[in-house]
Design goal:
There is one protein chain. By secondary structure, this protein is of the alpha+beta class. It has a domain of 115 residues: Transferase(Phosphotransferase) domain 1 (Transferase(Phosphotransferase), domain 1). 33% of the residues lie in helices and 15% in strands. A 3-stranded antiparallel β-sheet has the order 9-10-11, with no helix packed on it. It has a two-stranded antiparallel ribbon with strand order 1-2. Strands 3-4 form a two-stranded antiparallel ribbon.
């Protein structure tokens, strides 16, 4: 009988099943082979006959002999020799969330700076880029805050400069000094250079050479630097016109203080007349003195005519201090003496006596 089919098969092959199958063009073939029909050595690191480097010995499925395979972390032909796998080159297969470093047969993965854990599994904490970003944001916020603060200080200085007549001083024959220049010229406001205080602020000695330009000076006095700290309404108008501080400039400022006490209105404020005309409080006060209409601008109620006479004396003293010409004003010493004289008389004679004030011109 001729042979219709030829095939390789193991002892488990069932000829009846093959003959009953409709497709006889192919069949499952099992080929099992071994290096030697021996046992693997007890020491896994021992050299195995027939196997290359970096390999392990393992038994075939039928238990008759052994075969060779590459060790974990190696690849290639186990019978010729296996080579190390660089796991860092295949990030999809070998997971690493940090810094990957290849080793013989394996690899290490360190978590990024600022994080902790096993980089092969999961890193926890904040990444260095996140930390740098947060620090950068904080530094940026601090810088912006400092710039805003400096800007606010500059705007406040400018506001005070304009409020205290800085715009007018710009157009006068005066020199406006910065805070740094004043500190240098006065040796950081050394008390040995301190001359006194008045309506214009603190006055210190300074040499012209310290500034390299002229300073605010009185015509008959040595050069001195003046730090203007008062409100514009207190400034002597003659000083604003000439740029020269004189002895009686403070007298004018004191007169403004008396007006403020009598009227309760701040210097520089304006009053609206019946004719809808706005005039300065100082001019309004002087006008009330000339028209004998002082009572209408007082901030308090007068008890009787005797007390009103006392108020009129003080008002008259204020008007003399407010004369536009400094030459016509009384000296500060004369003003102080007049106030002391009125105080003594009021104490002796009481409020029922009328005090006649002598002219101090």
């Amino acid at each position: 009988m001729p042979c219709d089919y030829a095939l390789l098969a193991d002892e488990t092959f069932n000829i009846a099943e093959f003959q009953a199958s409709k497709d006889k063009s192919s069949s499952n073939v099992t080929i099992e082979w071994v290096v030697e029909e021996k046992n693997c050595p007890d020491n896994p690191n021992s050299k195995v006959d027939g196997c290359g480097d970096n390999t392990n010995c393992y038994y075939s499925e039928n238990g008759k002999g052994y075969r060779c395979k590459c060790k974990q972390g190696f690849q290639g032909n186990p019978y010729l020799g296996c080579v190390d796998i660089d796991e860092c080159l295949d990030k999809e297969k070998y997971h690493c969330e940090g810094k990957c470093k290849n080793t013989i047969g394996s690899y290490t993965c360190d978590c990024p700076i600022g994080m902790y854990g096993d980089g092969k599994v999961d890193c926890r904490g904040f990444h260095i880029t996140t930390i740098v970003g947060v620090i950068g944001a904080v530094i940026f916020s601090v810088i912006v805050g400092i710039l805003i603060f400096i800007r606010c200080i500059e705007r406040r200085k400018q506001k005070n400069f304009l409020k205290n007549g800085g715009e007018i001083l710009k157009h006068q024959s005066v020199r406006i000094f910065s805070a740094a220049e004043l500190v240098k010229a006065t040796e950081n406001f050394n008390e040995s250079h301190f001359l006194g205080e008045g309506g214009f602020g603190s006055v210190y000695k300074a040499k012209v050479a310290d500034f390299g330009a002229s300073v605010l000076i009185s015509p008959d006095q040595a050069a001195m630097a003046t730090k203007v700290q008062g409100t514009f309404g207190y400034l002597d108008p003659e000083y604003l016109m000439t740029g020269n501080l004189i002895e009686k400039s403070d007298v004018y400022s004191f007169g403004v203080v008396l007006v403020e006490l009598l009227t309760g209105v701040k210097p520089g404020s304006h009053m609206t007349l019946a004719s809808n005309e706005n005039i300065n409080i100082v001019h309004y006060f002087l006008s009330s003195i000339e028209n004998n209409d002082l009572r209408q601008i007082l901030t308090f109620r007068v008890a009787d005519e005797s007390e009103m006479e006392e108020v009129e004396i003080v008002a008259e003293l204020a008007s003399e201090c407010l004369r536009s010409s400094g030459v016509k004003r009384p000296t500060m010493k004369r003003v102080s003496e007049e106030l002391d004289r009125l105080k003594r008389l009021l104490k002796i004679y009481g409020h029922r006596r009328t005090v006649k004030r002598q002219s101090i011109c």
